[in-house]
User: Fold these one by one.
Assistant:
Number 1:
Amino acid sequence: MATWLNDYRAYKEALSQEFESGDIKINKVLQYQELLYRIDVLETCQMLCKTAPITMDMKSLVMHYQLVDAYIQNLSKERRIGLPADDKLKASRETSAAALESTVADCRKRFSSFRAENEQLYKRSISTLLNTVLPVWLQLRNTYTPITK
């Protein structure tokens, strides 16, 4: 997560400098908008990992998990904006979307019967969940707006 975030921030800074010239192609504008979105998502996921309760109190864990669950559910459905797609790209988008939905469903299933065996388990489990979902989400995002340097 941190590596992607650093790479995206660096690329965002490079694009910002290009924008000062005023002669920007639309694909760079789309990439910049996508970078802002991805940075926000990755920062939010980092925050969710950092704020995961270190406790065995199920009420606290459930409240935090509901935030995580709602967020990843949104990620699997939102921002389906991108360049026009031919049949091959449409198929790739459908495959990536199905993979993300399957990954999210699997994570939800694993957490449906979660029980904290120690105070650290939930925090580690949330980090693992997000680190499982994010690569699949990024794969889907790249079918809409690929980030290339």
Number 2:
Amino acid sequence: MIELDDVVVTAWSPDPAGGADRVVRLLGPVTLRLAERRIAVVGANGSGKSTLARLLNGLVLPSSGTVRVDGLDTATDGAAVRQRVGFVFTDPNAQIVLPTPLEDVALSLRRRFPDKVERLEAARAALRRFGLGERADVSVHALSGGQRQLLAIAAVLAVEPAVLVCDEPTTLLDLRWRRVVDDLLADLDQQVVVVTHDLDAARRADRVLVVDDGLVVYDGDPHEAVAHYEALMGQAGVP
């Protein structure tokens, strides 16, 4: 269970007119209980949806309020939370740090498998699971954009988190790879929270949150939530 209680996120912002810095609200107040298996988060760019996603594994900490995952507070139990909550970024290059897929996944497994031979065997198994077994030893630069995103997901899932949070994981992908990644996320055993601009994917979730101006302005049935978001964007003059 993911719980957000009266969460607000603020940041200092310089005054463009040269005056004193000021505090701006990025998100909140937000109170949520997230238990569904598939949750989508939609909203315009800059609405606060990525801030919301980053709260769930402690990449962003609340300025006030609390975020808990299975009773663990992200502010005080950050390491334990990150063991339970994996995070996938929009750009896989932000996550891939080693020269080959095998080395990159093995890096994620270094604590789980201290023995190098066992670690490499587990890494190869993880890559085979996502259709990358034959690419294990090639340069990551030889992978397509879709394959790199699969690699990023494989490295996160190799440690078997209970929850997977994805921040626009298909935004940089073409239609074919978007479908591959969407289908993969839909079939996972983990609870998945995905920030997305793909409204068709959002409609297939169990629950959809609509974020606007740092607030959750709609929360509920996927089709109704997407319709609310489309109406909201139409009122804002966004095509």
Number 3:
Amino acid sequence: MTSRITVIPGDGIGPDIVDAAIQILDKAGCGLEYDYVDAGLSAFEKHGELLPDHTLATLDKNRIALKGPLTTPMGGGFSSINVSLRQHFGLFANVRPVVSFQGTQARYQDIDIITVRENTEGMYSGLGQTTSRDGSEAEAMSKVTRQGCQRILHFAYELARREGRKKVTAVHKANILKSTSGLFLAVAREVAAEYPEIESEEMIVDATCMKLVMNPENFDVLVTTNLFGDIISDLCAGLVGGLGMAPGANIGANHAIFEAVHGSAPDIAGKNLANPSSVILAAVQMLEHIGQADNAARILTALRDTIESGDRATADLGGQHGTTDFTQAVLDRLS
């Protein structure tokens, strides 16, 4: 069955690494058709808008998107495009898996952790952000809801059940943030009781970060609020070699956007240096989401073999090759 998806090439290295993923999807025979649209700095330069109406309409129509990294200009008046997309389409669940690959520069082996982050509430909601006229003070509001907590916690436990995971860790700061984090923890305890077959634990966020560095093999699925999830998921990426090895999915009731989670790296844009693994892994997540598990597994196997063999490795993987050579190595394994 042919599916039409939206593709946002993004900024900086985005177009090169997204093109690599598209070549691999086509080589694997996924039968996808693509609508390309602009967002980010490239859209601003072309259309005077970071997130044009046409882009939103195409995303809404196709419901599934693959996205490269986006650049939001620094300074007042510019909101995060990623946050805007998540809020506009109700993409409440951010799913960031990290898995060890032999052949990377990682300091750990046998890591297999999924961070499930609430994506629309908390400190990133944009509520109450003010700065005094003289610049002497600033404030922002963090707001979470019982419904939002229930939704993300059920999502995490259902994911754990579906994938045969053994443990879910609810990460919080309820000892200090007694209102917002306290509500999240209270709801976490309620939801955990609905899944007696899955081990549940609760952990303060700073202790979580320490223990992730010391004993990451003790973690399975982490679920937490927006700000904590952003930090923890990047920490987890560091366990497996960095953001170049970490994909992300933003999932809502009706739409989903799959993305490379690293930045646009303008310093190496157009130089054929970037490792496309993050967006390739995001494409694997996408295929699993739309019911193409077999093709997802084939691509993952080809990518894993390429990295583990060191064949045409990029600089961050210890090699001297570029994006196109690395991509071709994966394509060769799909032949």
